[in-house]
Amino acid sequence: TEKGCCIYPGFTEHAYRLVFPFEERFASDIPQVLTVMPTGVVETTEELRPNEECALTAFTYPQSISDELAESPVAFTADESAQEDAPQDSRRRILRDTAFVWRREDGTNALVQTWPTHLNEDFRKTFEITEGTNPDSDKFSPQAVSEFQAAMVRLFGSNATQRPILFCHSKKLSKSPAVVGVGEDVLAHIKENPELMRTLAILNVDSDGLGFVADGTSGDGQKFEKHFTLQAGEQCVVYKEVG
User: Which of 97, 100, 119, 217 could be bridged to 93 by S-S, CB 3.0 to 4.6 A?
Assistant: First the structure.
């Protein structure tokens, strides 16, 4: 333990995801997915063209967004790559006009942070998949499942209810160091340790101490950089994902 952080030399990673396999079922429609972050920023946007392996995935816990952000205009990532791909009408909307943010009955705002994935052979080898029935309500929050389904209906229409939600779980051993603690403390410690930064493939830490840029290599060998933002005062884990 150092400065409020716990550092582990490796760990067993359990990943839980919800998946909606839209595939070729909605061929007459080509909706636009916006991956909305809890900060209100749209990280990615993509046209969902029909393909037998195409799906959307999401986290297995409910997410919320403030009234202020829900009522703000759709905003894109700083590199503007998402903005360039977005249709003109999405740039004029507020977040609550999208399929991914709406007001709940209790007055809070639901956020469904979803992004495209490929339901291919590699995915099926990596994840244990249960179709249609929640195998563990502690790991797959019923509220998150309901809101993910609601977002799919808002995106694809009422016929989306005829497609099953897939409950996916993977387990793998990781040799990456894992730094656990409050976000500010974790990034402060990483910034003070250049060797740890290199091991975690972190290029730099933001001046406000709540974000960082990491580099990596995609499955097709392309180099890329990605920015991550942490929430002030919240517990987090920073590690290098492989595969």
Answer: 97
